[in-house]
Design goal:
The complex is a heterotrimer of chains A (244), B (317) and C (298).
Chain A (H helix, E strand, L loop, with lengths): L10 E10 L2 E11 L4 E5 L6 H9 L6 E6 L2 E2 L5 H7 L1 E4 L11 H9 L6 H14 L1 H5 L10 H13 L5 E5 L7 H16 L3 E5 L3 H7 L2 E6 L2 E7 L8 H7 L2
Parallel strand pairs in A: 3-8, 3-9, 6-7, 7-8
Antiparallel strand pairs in A: 1-2, 1-4, 4-5, 9-10
Helix pairs in contact in A: 3-6
Chain B lengths: L3 H23 L2 H27 L6 H18 L5 H23 L4 H21 L1 H4 L5 E2 L4 E4 L3 E4 L2 H24 L1 H11 L1 H7 L3 H27 L1 E2 L6 H14 L5 H21 L4 H14 L3 H10 L2
Antiparallel strand pairs in B: 1-4, 2-3
Helix pairs in contact in B: 1-2, 1-7, 2-7, 2-10, 2-11, 2-12, 3-4, 3-5, 3-10, 4-10, 7-10, 8-9, 8-10, 11-12, 11-14, 12-14
Chain C lengths: L1 H9 L2 H32 L6 H19 L2 H24 L7 H23 L13 E4 L2 E4 H23 L1 H11 L1 H6 L4 H23 L9 H16 L4 H18 L5 H18 L11
The chains are: A alpha/beta (244), B mainly alpha (317), C mainly alpha (298).
């Protein structure tokens, strides 16, 4: 099955090799995300899922391989440029700016070149509509928020960049079931808005429900690729690579 | 490679030694003293390498060890008549050891940058004390004294001339080098390097990191003090300028230029720097530090492994 | 009882008051210098050995501009801006390549820069000290002394500059960028903040603050190529005592140490009064290594 049905994928990762020191973490990763698509990336701990996201985001430089975003080769470009080109990143453990207020956290993405005050207000209103609790806590320091609230802030902050794609790294980790379904709703809402999502997750059912296609990684490379609708939780493939 | 290496090393060593022994016999007076000075500063830089290169503790305090060694020797040469070479060495080492103990205590409680800045401030503390305590240290003007005779008890007693002084310094520096080399290759040295690589892990394995650090500082301080003693004997004066932190800074420059963690590198670095200084002084007089400083900065950015590291890479091709 | 009275009478109150004022004045200038240093360290993790030389360059710039325009204020402004630009240039050429490397390398690089700048100043301006004229003279009477207004003024201006910068950090748009970068450099980049330029900007500000201190302090001492050395040492002590990266701490520490030194100079010579700052440093390292004015870490 090929994702090349979409005319030109938004993001195309081609045979990426990334090293941490001497460790060969990514050993030829290739995947694609179409515009507005929700794509899942599954795999056990340590197979390189987070590193793949970091490589796309420019936080880690690949040794070999190509990454194409909206028609441009972006491997090797610094992260701050990629953020401005339209890639949003929500890392594992959220990493919001703890000493900045919620508002200030949002402003780090909002205060961009070429954004009118009116547009800024629109974006803020939109995000507060998605996450009313953030509106309540807008002047509180990020570090005082609960885990679930911080996750929402991390996503909201990325949305401030008006990204074409958001890289989501294990957004439901450590969250209560109620929050997990909230995250699911947000993913759907972003999808409706036309934002593509590359979703790294350990939560298999959520991923299969939310994504159109799913890649499964093991030992630094993509080993399986299928439409989400073709997979079910109990499948042999899932068992093999995820032991679930 | 590892079988040939000792052969290559000792051959090279023998060649260098031969050259250095012959040097005072063929070189004019000025260059004779120049080579001797390189050896002395090289010893200082080598001692600092124990901390910087092997234990990973950047110290800007070596001028304090050096200076106390110098003043200690001065004390011996001025207070005990007739001036005795070995007593001067002993006093100098004791002086340096005292400072080293002081610094060692703080070395265990401070890491990295804090340690570096603190050692710098300590050398300034000693500078101020020496500078202002005029009655004892001669203050700004320092102390002058005469050179002791080279005495090997029972065998030999002659005043130094510049050739025999050179050989004496060469002997001391070579012996120091061999001792330090032995130490850095011993299990103790391995632990030091492990501390440099990853201190928490070394501690987790079970080594009493604090104790190793203290010993490293003492070792480093003693040899630096020895260099100070040699300097005092060669030049017959002690001055507070040598305790000023700039001397520590220059020492670190020698280390970086030559290549840290190599023991030999710092000596090479000292030689390189002094040669640069000589050459540039001809053209820039006292402003030689402008081009030399720029070269140093460029080396930090582009050649961080120093001359030796660069040579090693080049030879390995 | 008599002994107590005699003791109380022997305390030179007038001198103490004078030295209090002196201490605060020197303390504020030191605070301005140290603020730049602690900022650069707190935000960029760079120990800027060349900070004293930036101070010195600022003073020399002040001398030159003053000689050409006759206006102290223009000199202050131009010196600050010029040295800020020089600082930015230095950071881009020598410090940016070192980002991500062992912090030792930045200490060495800035040390090298300080040597080059010092000797450059010696070469360009010669060993004889220059003088900057105060912009205004005029004294008020403090006990038996005629105390210059200018001294109070520079204390006030230094406080104003630091205050303005603090406001900028808290409320300005770029202030948020700087704070975000300080807390999490990686995520700041992921949010589109051009971190390398934030670093250059911060270094430039630190340099500018040092330069301004140089010009302000110029009329009080001679301007010569070694004036940076003493200040950098004291500034480092202040930064360590105040808690590295802690702006408020370094201001408090600056005033604290300057006051102690000023009081000490009632009884000992200024050269020896310097020992006070050393003692404070040693005590801080022994008992409160994170900084005297830093709340104890939980």
């Amino acid at each position: 099955m090929s994702a090349a049905d979409t005319p030109e994928p938004l993001v195309s990762v081609e045979d990426i090799h990334t090293y941490y020191g001497k460790s060969h973490i990514l050993d030829g990763v290739s995947l694609r995300v179409g515009a507005g698509e929700v794509v899942g990336l599954l795999g056990r701990n340590g197979v390189g899922k987070s590193t793949t996201l970091k490589t796309i985001m420019g936080l880690v430089s690949p040794e070999r391989g190509r990454i194409v975003f909206a028609g441009k080769s972006i491997e090797g470009l610094p992260a701050h440029q990629l953020a401005r080109l339209g890639i949003g990143y929500v890392p594992e453990d959220r990493r919001i700016f703890r000493l900045l207020t919620v508002m200030e956290n949002l402003r780090t993405g909002l205060d961009r070149h070429g954004v009118t005050e009116a547009r800024k207000r629109e974006l803020l209103d939109k995000v507060f509509a998605y996450f009313p609790v953030l509106a309540e806590r807008r002047n509180q320091a990020g570090g005082t928020l609960s885990g679930g609230e911080q996750q929402m802030l991390a996503i909201a902050r990325a949305m401030m960049l008006e990204p074409k794609i958001i890289l989501l790294d294990e957004p439901t980790e450590g969250l209560m079931p109620r929050m997990v379904s909230q995250i699911r709703q947000i993913i759907d809402a972003l999808h409706r808005d036309g934002v593509a999502i590359l979703l790294v997750e350990q939560n298999v059912p959520l991923t299969l429900e939310a994504s159109a296609r799913v890649y499964i990684m093991e030992k630094g490379a993509v080993r399986h690729h299928a439409a989400a609708s073709d997979l079910k939780v109990g499948d042999a493939v899932i068992q093999q690579y995820l032991g679930v | 490679m590892s079988k040939r290496y000792p052969l290559v090393f000792w051959t090279g060593f023998a060649v260098v030694m031969a050259l250095l022994i012959v040097a005072p016999l063929v070189l004019p007076e000025f260059w004779r003293r120049f080579v001797t000075e390189i050896l002395i500063w090289g010893l200082l830089a080598m001692s600092s390498d124990i901390l910087i290169g092997y234990t990973g503790m950047v110290s800007f305090g070596h001028s304090a060890f050096f200076g106390l060694g110098m003043y200690g020797a001065a004390a011996a040469l001025l207070t005990v008549k007739p001036p005795n070479l070995w007593l001067a060495i002993a006093y100098g080492l004791v002086g340096a050891a005292g400072v080293a103990l002081f610094v060692a205590y703080f070395s265990t409680r401070l890491r990295d940058i804090y340690f570096a800045i603190t050692t710098l401030i300590f050398s300034q503390i000693f500078y101020v004390i020496i500078f202002t305590w005029t009655e004892v240290t001669g203050g700004e003007n320092g102390l002058t004294f005469s050179r002791p005779r080279l005495t090997i008890p029972g065998l030999y007693s002659e005043p130094f001339d510049s050739t025999t002084l050179h050989w004496f310094v060469l002997a001391v520096v070579t012996a120091s080098y061999l001792v330090l080399r032995r130490i850095t290759r011993s299990p103790f040295g391995m632990v030091l390097q492990s501390i440099r690589e990853n201190e928490p892990r070394t501690r987790a394995i079970g080594y009493a990191v604090e104790r190793y650090k203290i010993v490293a500082v003492m070792l480093s301080g003693l040899f630096a003090g020895l260099a100070g003693v040699l300097y005092a004997i060669q030049n017959r004066f002690a001055a507070p300028d040598f305790v000023y932190f700039l001397v520590s800074g220059e020492t670190v420059i020698f280390n970086v230029m030559g290549g840290i963690g190599t023991l030999v590198g710092p000596i090479v670095g000292a030689g390189f720097f002094l040669l640069l200084r000589e050459t540039f002084s001809r053209f820039f007089t006292e402003y030689y530090l402008i081009p030399v400083g720029i070269i140093f900065i460029a080396m930090v950015i582009f050649m961080p492994q120093g001359l030796l590291g660069f040579a090693r890479r080049w030879l390995n091709r | 009882m008599d002994a107590v009275v005699a003791f109380l009478e022997a305390i030179p109150y007038d001198q103490i008051l004078i030295q209090t004022v002196n201490g605060i004045v020197t303390g504020m200038i030191l605070a301005l210098v140290a603020s730049g240093l602690t900022l650069i360290f707190g935000i960029m993790d760079v120990v800027n050995f060349a900070h004293g030389e930036l101070f010195m360059l600022g003073a020399y710039m002040g001398v030159i501009v003053l000689a050409n325009t006759g206006s102290f204020w223009v000199a202050l402004l131009l010196a600050t801006i010029t040295v800020a630009l020089i600082g930015a240039a230095l950071q881009v050429t020598t410090l940016r390549p070192l980002i991500g490397r062992d912090p030792l390398t930045t200490i060495l690089a800035t040390f090298g820069i300080s040597l080059v700048l010092q000797n450059y100043a010696l070469w360009a301006f010669g060993p004889v000290a220059r003088k900057i004229q105060e912009p205004f003279t005029g004294h008020f009477t403090l006990f038996y002394l005629e105390y210059p207004w200018y001294r109070l003024f520079i204390a006030g201006l230094s406080a104003a500059i630091i205050g303005a910068f603090w406001l900028f950090l808290k409320y300005g748009k770029y202030g948020i960028w700087i704070r975000a970068t300080t807390q999490d450099r990686v995520m700041a980049q992921a949010m589109g903040i051009p971190v390398p330029w934030v670093y250059t900007f911060v270094f430039a500000i630190g340099a500018g603050m040092a330069a301004a201190s140089g010009v302000l302090f110029g009329p009080l001492v001679g301007v010569n190529h070694t004036m940076g050395l003493d200040w950098v040492l004291k500034a480092f002590i202040v930064v360590v005592v105040g808690g590295m990266g802690n702006l408020g701490g370094s201001i408090a520490a600056s005033i604290f140490i300057s006051l102690l030194e000023a009081y000490a100079s009632i009884w000992v010579s200024p050269a020896q009064a310097v020992i006070v700052s050393f003692v404070v440093l040693v005590l801080t390292l022994l008992f409160r290594p994170t900084g005297l004015f830093v709340p104890t870490p939980k």
